[in-house]
Amino acid sequence: MSVPGGTLPVMDPSHGVTIAEQLARTPVITDADVLTRVDEIIEPAARRERALWLFFFYSDGTQAPVLVPIDDMPELPGRDDVEVAFHMLRHFYGLADDDDLSFVLAVCRDGPLEQTDSDRQWLRVLQWGITEYAAPVRMICLATPEGVRDLGPAF
Question: pTM of the full predicted structure?
Answer without folding.
Answer: 0.85
